């Protein structure tokens, strides 16, 4: 009897075990696997400090075997001229994220091909050592300049006769004479010629402009701009960038051109394109051992019939800053950084963060995409050729004032 019970009990256990195994197998076959971490492209080991800040301080390279999966870019075909400007990280990051339709890069230095190709997953087929060849073969609609400021004119000389628009990093040119030649070519061949400023994409600056436009602070009486940092070498700019940035010919000046252009651009925009009546400037050379060829600090006074502008540009400050103060007949505006500002009107103070900008006014790629389709809509803004010809006039007068030691009447 015990034997039969034992046998029955063992049979029940066997059936239960079989059922459990069946359930487990079925579950394993139908359960959706837990997703793994998405594969991402490599990132550079180290970026210049100011560029890293724009990329949200993400400077680490994720060392893993990866497969780059990028959304198919739309928009106009984009070419790049030059790779020796550290702002190149910003546009190539957009390429890596599938936000720019990059069709070719022209750069004579092949070591930069390898450097940026590895960093951003750019295929060898996109690299050319000659701009004209790249444009003929890839047929971009716009070429973005990331080369020495003194070489911006070469981009326009090549692209304008081919009907290709151009957008360069600030400032427009190294000299006023170069800018005039670029303007002539742009008008002759009916191309857009734009200049990219970081501050153009600052919500705080746009909010300040909107307040001024509504006459809330009254007629502008004084504008003060602080633009600078510890110095390009001190913040870790690349050797390729420093080689031309600190050269009086290739950059046109030192801190005066590099940072003075920001204030001149925003000032001209707020003054509705009005040309100043006079410019006075002084330059300082606090660090000749670091920057032997160019000034590292400049102060520029810009006179209008009813207002005064003050531009303070420096590679010699203990921290980076891009702020702006506007004094009106009825009020005052101070932008502290990209987002924060303060408005004082009739002793009422309001400190706040500006509303984020909407596309296409929030970044270079959507902006130039819009500008190519609507050139008349952007002809008076901060990136426009019209605005930047006045900027170049101010910078040229500042350099003449420093050289001649006097106020330059325009």
Structure characterization notes:
By secondary structure, the protein is α/β, with parallel strands linked by helices. The longest helix is centred in the N-terminal third of the chain and has 29 residues, at 2-30. The strands form two sheets. A nine-stranded mixed sheet has the order 14-13-12-11-7-10-9-8-15. The protein starts with a helix and ends with a strand. The protein is built from twelve helices and 15 strands. The protein is 36% helix and 20% strand. α10 (255-270) crosses α12. The model is unreliable at 1-5, 11-45 and 57-67 (pLDDT under 50). The protein is globular and about 60 Å long.
Number of helices: 12
* Rg, nearest Å: 28 Å
Low-confidence stretches: 1-5, 11-45, 57-67
Largest sheet: 9 strands, mixed
Overall, the morphology is globular
Number of strands: 15
Strand order of the largest sheet: 14-13-12-11-7-10-9-8-15
Helix/strand-derived category reads alpha/beta
Termini, distance in Å? 120 Å
Order of helices and strands: HHEHEHEHEHEHEHEHHEEEEEEEHHE
Strand content: 15-25%
Arithmetic mean of pLDDT: 88
Q: State the share of residues found in helices, binned by percent.
A: 25-40%
Question: What order do the helices and strands come in, and which of them pair?
Answer:
Layout: H1 2-30, H2 49-54, E1 78-81, H3 88-96, E2 102-106, H4 110-120, E3 127-128, H5 131-138, E4 142-145, H6 152-159, E5 165-169, H7 176-189, E6 193-196, H8 203-213, E7 220-228, H9 239-245, H10 255-270, E8 278-284, E9 297-303, E10 308-314, E11 321-328, E12 331-335, E13 340-345, E14 348-353, H11 364-373, H12 385-404, E15 408-409
Helix pairs in contact: 7-12, 10-12
